[in-house]
Design a protein that fits this description.
Elements: E1 2-4, E2 30-33, E3 36-43, E4 49-54, E5 60-65, E6 71-74, E7 79-81, E8 87-88, H1 93-101, H2 107-124, H3 131-142, H4 146-163, H5 188-195, E9 200-207, H6 220-233, E10 237-239, E11 249-256, E12 259-268, H7 274-290, E13 293-297, E14 306-308, E15 318-320, H8 327-331, E16 342-347, H9 351-366, E17 374-378, H10 385-400, H11 405-414, E18 425-427, E19 444-449, E20 458-462, E21 467-469, E22 482-487, E23 492-496
Parallel strand pairs: 9-12, 9-13, 13-16, 16-17
Antiparallel strand pairs: 1-19, 2-3, 3-4, 4-5, 5-6, 6-7, 7-8, 10-11, 11-12, 14-15, 17-18, 19-20, 20-21, 22-23
Length: 498
């Protein structure tokens, strides 16, 4: 695979804000309130305080606080207790969709769901509704009367008026103020700052088809259950969106450089049930758009270039995103590459060659990323379900310790649940992508990433006409750990500094 030189990675500048004070909040300030970050928008003419909460599916909800009352009510029907930090009826667009499509739901409930979903679509923006809503959009709009449309218009106007009170809507916790003279844009800690800039570490974990023909068993749910138990061991608590039957959201509070961080992990395993399939598709689509990390577990489906986010392998759940088949990256996904930095880990057979590398180059060619791009983790060989929970539980623990890329990859590759557990390949994980050691005055003018037959190496053509091997093949805890790269016919070696 040969492509032109990707756009230069830019450094994201974060706004400095005050946090955590008990004093009266100022407009635009972010506050950590009982486990969640909110942005203060100001006080309405009614005397209510307005707070902005960032949801996982890309729409911020405005909560209204009546002075002296602990229960805050959101414009998307969520309720928050400022005393306990608990949410009730926490909004999720796909759960509202499941309510609308529930054959057992009454007319009143379905009408309310249709109205709320249309409000979500209006606030979500974009040329089209999110993919998982498109097939139901016509049925939704057919249920809306004049009173519903007037209610939606009023809510949209109130939402926009509330956001217009601040220069930059959205939480931001001032991590740039923690910079020091030793910091570098290439330092892993600076990548963590990008991930945590809004006060949240959001992770979407999605299961695909997992049936093994040899024993007629499904592996997605057992693997996710095992990971769920590991998250609970790590102190995560579970929450169901809007009181749904499955509690898929896991929450925990940690800290980074003295700032509290809210970690939100959404687990949606592969399933044959329609409401769960919709949930997995939404988690994948909105995760790629808005999460800090996206994880997939399932089959590679041989050379199809398609992931199926269901055990039924339905067309709705099919995502043709591998082996250069980018149709569904364009058609079914939105807002790709908009995060300051993002990690995508795809756990399936030969996933680096079949999925990671093609997606990576699609993003490099066709998406103008404002930040540091996407770091990828994949496998060079067959993957095994037994590897998933032990490795990714360890991965989360290492992330929450803010460890460097070399520590993470070496630790994960030491975990060998089976005799045939493959190593993991990491590219751009918490370190710059397309990094090279070149003589003074030489610039890299073209980049080529080769496949497994060439050790998944990345080569650059210098302005001097010579070929250089990228140092990104070697995860590094600090910038410049690798000082020389030696390429042989069957191996690539990196020499570390003393």
């Amino acid at each position: 695979m040969r492509r032109g030189l990707p756009a230069r990675v830019t450094v994201l500048l974060l706004a400095l804000v005050a946090t955590g004070s008990a004093a009266e909040p100022s407009s635009g300030e972010s506050r950590f309130i009982e486990g969640s970050w909110f942005q203060f928008l100001g006080t309405a003419d009614t005397g209510e305080r307005l707070w902005l909460y960032p949801h996982l599916d890309g729409v911020h909800e405005v909560f209204r606080e009546t002075p002296g009352v602990a229960r805050w009510h959101g414009d998307l029907e969520s309720v928050f207790s400022s005393h306990t930090g608990e949410f009730a009826n926490l909004f999720s667009a796909v759960e509202v969709l499941n309510e609308f499509l529930d054959p057992g739901a009454g007319t009143s409930r379905r009408d309310g769901a249709a109205r709320l979903l249309e409000l979500f679509v209006m606030l979500h923006g974009g040329k089209r509704a999110p993919y998982y809503l498109r097939g139901s959009r016509r049925k939704l709009t057919e249920r809306l009367g004049e009173a519903d449309l007037a209610w939606i218009d009023a809510r949209v106007e109130a939402h926009r008026d509330a956001l217009a009170r601040v220069e930059t809507p959205g939480t931001s916790i001032g991590l740039d103020a923690l910079d020091d003279s030793t910091s570098s844009p290439e330092d892993p800690q600076d990548f963590y700052r990008c991930l945590l800039a809004d006060g949240y570490l959001d992770v979407s974990i999605v299961g695909g088809n997992s049936k093994e023909k040899k024993d007629d068993t499904y592996h997605s749910w057992p693997s996710f259950d095992e990971l769920q138990r590991e998250l609970e061991r790590m102190g995560f608590g579970r929450l169901a969106f809007r009181g749904a039957g499955d509690a898929v959201l896991n929450r925990r509070v940690t800290s980074f450089r003295g700032r509290p961080i809210s970690v939100r992990v959404t687990l949606t395993a592969g399933s044959r049930r329609r409401h769960r399939i919709r949930r997995a598709v939404a988690n994948f689509v909105e995760g790629l758009a808005h999460a800090d990390m996206v994880v997939y577990l399932g089959h590679s489906n041989k050379l199809s270039g398609a992931y199926y986010l269901s055990e039924t392998k339905s067309s709705f759940s099919r995502f043709r995103i591998g082996l250069g088949k980018s149709a569904d990256l364009r058609e079914k996904c939105h807002d790709l590459g908009r995060r300051p930095y993002q990690i995508v880990a795809l756990t399936s057979c030969f996933s680096y060659d079949r999925y990671c590398r093609p997606i990576r180059w699609f993003l490099e060619r066709e998406v103008e990323a404002p930040g540091r791009g996407v770091g990828f983790i994949g496998t060079p060989d067959r993957a095994y379900y037994a590897d998933f929970a032990p490795r990714f539980a360890a991965f989360f623990e290492l992330l929450l310790e803010y460890r460097g890329p070399r520590d993470i990859v070496e630790s994960l590759n030491r975990i060998q649940p089976t005799p045939r557990t493959p190593p993991l390949i990491a590219r751009g994980l918490l370190q710059p992508r397309f990094s090279f050691i070149v003589p003074a005055g030489v610039e890299i003018v073209d980049i080529e990433e080769r496949g497994a037959g060439a050790l998944n190496a990345v080569f650059g053509t210098g302005s001097d006409g010579r070929t250089y091997t990228s140092t990104e093949l070697f995860p590094q805890n600090e910038p410049g750990e690798i000082v020389q790269v030696v390429t042989l016919s069957n191996a690539i070696h990196g020499l570390m500094r003393d």
